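With this grant's support, we have settled on a layout for protein records. One resulting record is reproduced below.
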Amino acid sequence: MSDPSNAAEPGHWGPPYLLYLGSAADDLAIKTARGLAYWRPDWCVGQLRRHDCKPTLGLPEMSIGEARNAGANTMVIGAANAGGVMSPEIVADAIAALEAGLHVAAGLHQKLRENPDIVAAARRHGRVLFDARDPMPGLPVGNGRPRAGRRLLTVGTDCSVGKMYTTLAIERAMRKRGLAADFRATGQTGILVAGSGIPIDAVVADFIAGAAEKISPARLDGGWDLIEGQGSLFHPSYAGVSLGLLHGSQPDALVLCHEPTRRHMRGLPDYPLPELKRCLQANLAAAQLTNPTVKAVGVALNTSGLAEADAVVACRRISELLELPCEDPVTMGVEAIVDNLLACCAN
């Protein structure tokens, strides 16, 4: 997959982007669009919201025609619903974008190319469809053999607690120090941000570990592969994806991600979040199958639901509980986590 930042030309999807929010009900539903707006703001010219859309990115409100006139090259469907399906409204707006001369990209489980009307419109107008949740063919089965290089994997107490943000923040912090570090995307938003990756949740189960090995092959330059985690070992729906990543990544280091204001697993009100120490120990035990020397190096908190003073207290409390640096990557940075990573994994 090529870097979309170099692809904004006729016949290629890529920025500048119009971020489509549709009829999203809450912030979690627009995490793909929000991730792009946060990490690649220079790529995003505006947002398109239907009248009943509740969240906003704070970008200029634009129609498809206005976005095209402002230089947009691709409309990114940045909203998702349960199951990742395309509503009739999304289909209609995707076709309208294609008719206006925009390419269309999406990270939904239901592919753009699976809708005959969208495909016909793309062909009719010579536009490109890009499905981020489209794993490459020929993925291997994981073999568990040790390979050269150093790797960090983010893990979580739940889904959507900040694993992608944390991984990208660590990459940015390490690069500012002049260190070789590369974000390895495993989800649709990360793939759109990075321009490459493998959508792990779309990989057949037997090949998840192999996909993780593929995305972070042997590395001989002394640098770090920073692998975006998915799901949670404690989420009944998605634990399998998390386990496959733990085995295939062979991580030298883990960072635990958590949202302290959440009271139950996303979408499952009958399942409370796991206790932090138990969750961290379970992830370390699973990772030890393919890397017996794996270490926990930090905790990343999403404190967006807390007042600033309460966020500081929460980080201090968790740091003392787990004896690890604990920071909010967005409001506090990740310098203490990177310091501990380099100290723990110096050799």
